[in-house]
Specification:
The complex is a heterodimer of chains A (about 475) and B (about 300). Chain A has helices spanning about 55-75, 80-95, 95-110, 110-135, 160-175, 190-200, 215-225, 235-245, 270-285, 305-315, 335-350, 380-385, 400-410, 425-435, 465-470; strands spanning about 20, 25, 30, 35-40, 45-50, 145-150, 150-155, 180, 210, 230-235, 250-255, 260-265, 295-300, 355, 370-375, 390-400, 415-420, 440, 460, 475. Chain A is an alpha/beta fold and about 475 residues long. The longest helix of chain A has 22 residues, at about 110-135. The chains are: A alpha/beta (about 475), B alpha/beta (about 300).
Chain lengths: ~475, ~300
């Protein structure tokens, strides 16, 4: 019997999108001096709202507001008082989770199942976790008297708009810093709704400032002399520019950049769960994940069997309307990103790898890319070396654990890795040798505010989350 | 997995080597997968379709010491016409009773298409000799049972005596004749998902037509991850042998919502070929009324009270 799931769209009535949004500076929405831009729903290309663009003046205003709030209120407020605001924000996020999830899905294109069940619970968890630290910083093992740094400039990407905001804003505020945050130009809406939440929580003006715009706005923010700390998540290319710009200024810097992670499946792996893990590793959030398991390293002895199971499973993925509660894979975030994925996938074919996608009909409007698996991939192929940031998996094989480690590490990146084996001692042996900031064993893409996250090599430096993540926002000398 | 399956059952050693050579099951991952599939939203037309499918897959069950011919006849009437007010409601797949009540059920169901299943083999504990188990089965089959729900010897399984479990299943299968054999693994007593996978394969190798989660007398009974593991087993067994074995989730399934979750598990794990009463069953008693209630709600937009649905 065929069981066809009827459309089950989440209602978009829970969120009221305004026709236009200003910049959130010093507790108020204000006009920007730059040319406003439109943010669209990538699943339909329908314009969602017009958003102000911050010019240099606006950036300056925002940094000054943050400085004043730091010096007058936030920097000197007892941790126990800061904690109350963070707890309040966390609770409001939980109360408004449905609204935020729908808005995230509309602006980003990710499936509502993920924004509802992954992004939003983690966002609230990050605020709750860091609220708990605010009055206990002296016990974080970072020295007896950790002090805030001042004003943090934070530039975040479009793949997890609100979650990346939480990763940045929650520890910064818990540690006593004030922030100026710039969301990505294709996904500004949940950050602007977060600004409303700051007002609702009666956060003192200037503690959180949100300025929207494109790369120029971000560059102006990072370069502003009134900034004490820069935190960036995004591409390695931009990260490199920022590192250059910040060098010698005395600003503290953390970078969370690209990745080309290997998911390593041994012949004694729990096969069904490894298949799930590989699928989740590369197709979660359309593969727009810096720690995506974009390379599958499978032991040669089980290659055929494993790939057959993987293809069967990928064939069941439901691609389509991100607001449908049964959708597994949503829209690519922008035309630009779609072009990049398309180009890299074409290079895979040109270089001789074999391309496969399940039969699936993609919507006519919007930006879409089918889940894709390349087999017969060599380390030298571009699809094995460059970050695709899309639903494209490159399959390579290995014969021995040594070879698996060598291939996994043979990348300029070093953000994450996955190991699938029922043998505990092998997991430990591998973890000692893998150069990756996060190694998941028999799971993948699991996040938790208590676990530090960050990379090696071109994946950046500094850690976010956990006790280690606090250090990025504290002066411990 | 290169040994020909025919040779696997040759000795306890070969059985053990085969069953322990199956890929392991990671508990966290299996739980997570079942939980994600539990979030599927089955609404409107899909829900109507799923409710009718679930009704047709129910093995309406009474397994109590207090069962009487009268109780069984009443249940049989309900099995044929679950909702007397609505003739469009399909009959259930089967009724499931103790062996001594099979004759009453057979008489009540003659010509209706509803099958009679009997639990046998010293149900629910399985603690008796092979002779008694076979005699129990023969009794039920002679009384006209279409299906036999046997229990495995969990003690022998946990002690590693796979050959004994295999031989019992094979002997009961032989005693079944034309009747279909459902093998109850009693997963609540097997403790690990690895054991569930091994017991599933063991039962299928020994000739089971169905593998079934539970007796309903032990908690936990059917759970989504356990059924997921069993569905993976029948899928893989079919890929290897070409023989399609069914799955029966039994015990603890009380709401239409839960039943639909199991249909989603079947749909996305084994596939639509299993989505028929021939290859998937839900063993339950109180579930049927909730399915009927939801069905009527979907058709009329209103919930009827419990008194508008029969209690048999």
């Amino acid at each position: 019997m065929r069981l066809d799931y009827a459309p089950a769209p989440e209602s978009r009535d829970v969120v009221a999108i305004r026709p236009s949004y200003g910049l959130f500076i010093n507790g108020e929405f204000t006009e920007g001096k730059g040319q406003p831009f439109t943010t669209v729903n990538p699943a339909t290309e329908e314009p969602l709202a017009e958003v102000a663009c911050a010019a240099d003046d606006d950036v300056d205003r925002a940094v000054r507001a943050a400085r004043e709030a730091y010096e007058r209120v936030w920097g000197r407020m007892p941790g126990s008082e800061r904690a109350k605001y963070l707890f309040r924000i966390a609770r409001i996020i939980q109360e408004r989770a449905r609204e935020l999830a729908v808005l995230e899905t509309l602006d980003n294109g990710k499936p509502i199942r993920e924004s509802r069940d992954v992004d939003l619970p983690l966002v609230a968890a990050h605020f709750f976790y860091h609220a708990g630290w605010a009055d206990k910083l002296a016990y974080a093992g970072l020295g007896p008297d950790p002090r805030p740094l001042g004003v943090a400039a934070q530039v975040i990407p479009w793949n997890f708009p609100l979650l990346m905001l939480a990763w940045k804003v929650a520890p910064a505020l818990a540690c006593g810093n004030t922030v100026v945050l710039k969301p990505a130009e294709t996904t500004p809406l949940t950050a602007l709704l977060f600004a409303e939440i700051c007002l609702q929580a009666e956060l003192p003006p200037g503690v959180v400032n949100i300025i929207t715009g494109a790369g120029d706005t971000g560059a102006a923010l990072v370069a502003h002399p009134g900034v004490d700390k820069v935190a960036f998540t995004g591409s390695t290319e931009v990260g490199r520019q920022i590192a250059r710009q910040v060098a010698g200024t005395g600003k503290r810097l953390t970078l969370e950049l690209g990745g080309k992670a290997a998911n390593i499946v041994f012949e004694d792996a729990p096969i069904d769960q490894a298949v799930e893990g590989v699928v989740n590793g590369i197709f979660f959030n359309q593969g727009h994940v810096c720690c995506a398991g974009s390379r599958l390293l499978v032991q040669e002895s089980i290659e055929e069997e494993f790939l057959e199971a993987l293809r069967r499973r990928v064939g069941t993925l439901r691609v389509g309307d991100p607001l449908d509660k049964n959708t597994d894979i949503g829209a690519i975030n922008s035309a630009q990103q779609l072009a990049k994925i398309t180009e890299l996938a074409a290079s895979g074919e040109a270089e001789g790898a074999t391309r496969w996608s399940p039969a699936c009909t993609l919507p006519e409007k919007g930006y879409w890319f089918p889940p894709t698996i390349f087999t017969g991939v060599a380390q030298s192929h571009r699809i094995a070396r460059e970050e695709i940031f899309g639903p494209v998996l490159s399959v390579l094989t290995f014969r021995t654990p040594e070879e698996a480690v060598a291939k996994a590490n043979n990348t300029p990146y070093g953000l994450s890795a996955g190991i699938w084996t029922e043998k505990g001692s092998r997991i430990l042996w591998m973890v000692e040798r893998l150069r990756a900031g996060v190694v998941w064993a028999n799971t993948y893409n699991r996040f938790d505010p208590t676990a530090p996250f960050g990379g090696y090599k071109e994946s950046g430096y500094g850690r976010e989350g956990g006790r280690h993540g606090l250090e990025a926002y504290l002066d411990v000398t | 997995m290169t040994t020909p399956l025919a040779e696997v059952a040759g000795s306890n050693a070969t059985l053990r080597a085969f069953l322990h050579g199956l890929p392991g099951v990671d508990r966290v991952g299996a739980d997570q997968r079942a939980a994600i599939l539990g979030t599927r939203s089955i609404k409107t037309t899909a829900k109507a379709q799923a409710l009718d499918a679930a009704i047709q897959m129910v093995d309406l069950t009474t397994l109590e010491g207090a069962d009487t011919p009268g109780k069984v006849r009443a249940m049989c009437a309900k099995a044929v016409h679950p909702d007397p007010d609505d003739p469009t409601v399909p009959s259930v797949a089967a009724v499931c009773v103790y062996p001594d009540l099979v004759a009453d059920a057979v008489a009540a169901l003659r010509g209706t298409g509803v099958k009679v299943a009997a639990v046998a083999t010293a149900f629910p504990s399985g603690r008796s000799s092979l002779e008694v188990k076979v005699a129990d089965t023969t009794l039920a089959v002679a009384a006209g049972a279409d299906e036999i729900d046997m229990v495995i010897d969990r003690g022998a399984f946990l002690a590693g005596d796979y050959r004994k479990v295999y031989e019992e299943i094979a002997a009961v299968k032989a005693a079944c004749g034309a009747a279909h054999l459902k093998v109850i693994l009693e997963t609540g007593e097997l403790a690990t998902y690895d054991n569930v996978r091994r017991a599933s394969w063991l039962a299928m190798l020994a000739g089971a037509d169905f593998i079934k989660t539970s007796t309903g007398k032990i908690s936990p009974a059917a759970t989504p991850p356990v059924v997921l593991v069993m569905l993976e087993a029948v899928r893989d067994f079919f890929a290897r042998t070409g023989r399609r074995v069914g799955v029966k989730a039994a015990g603890g399934i009380r709401t239409a919502k839960d039943a639909i979750k199991y249909l989603v598990l079947v749909n996305e794990t084994a596939g639509e070929d299993w989505l028929t009463p021939e290859y998937f069953r839900l063993g339950a008693s109180s579930l049927l009324n909730d399915l009927l209630m939801q069905r009527r709600k979907l058709a009329t937009g209103r919930y009827g009270g419990a008194d508008y649905f029969t209690l048999d």
